[in-house]
Amino acid sequence: MSHAHSPVIPRPVDAVRLDGGRLCLDFVNTIHDRYAAEQEDYLGDPKRFIAWSGRAGALLPADGVSEPRAAPRRAALMEEVAALRGHLHELFAARIDERAPRPDAVRGLDHWLHQAWTNQTLGIDGKMHWRTGKSDPQRALQRIALDALDLLGDPAPSRLRRCANTTSCGWLFLDVSKNGRRRWCAMETCGTAEKMQRYRRG
Fold this sequence. Notes:
6 helices
C-alpha cells in the first residue's frame, strides 16, 4: 500500500525572514536551506515574487506592478529570477571565499545593471529617477542588481558573511555587529540549532 506525500504548503511570504541586511542578500536567501537535500524556493511563482519584492523593498506601491498573465512571460520571469539569484550567489560567495567569480555571473549582473540604467534618467536634483510609465516585475530585478553593485563596490573592509551552519543553511548576510563576529544568519534559528547539537554531543 503506497502512501502519497501530502503537498508541501509554501510558507506565507510575510513569514519569510529578511536576515541578510541588504536587499540583494535577502534575494539570494530566498532559497531556504541552500545546502539541504530538499530546498524550499520562497519565490515559486510570479505572484510570490512580486509579493516578496514589495515586502523587501524591491518594488514600491507607486510602481504599480502586477503579475504577468501570459504563460510564456510568467515562465520567462521566473527563469530571470532564478538566473539572477544564482549569479548573485556566485558573486558574493566568490567575494567571501576570496576567489574570482565565474564569468557568466559577472555577465548576468551586468545585463540587469544596463537594464536598470536604461530605465532611469538624471533629474535636475542630480539624482537618478526611474522613468514613469508602464512598470513590470523586471524593475525589482533591476533594483536588486543596483543594490548588488553598491555592495560589491564598497571599498570598506567587507563584512559579507556566510552563515556558520554550512551543513544546510548557506544563507549570506552583512555583519553590522560592533565586534564584527556575527556567525549566524539568525541566532534564533541556526544559532540555536548549533547550540542544541553541541548540548547533545556533550
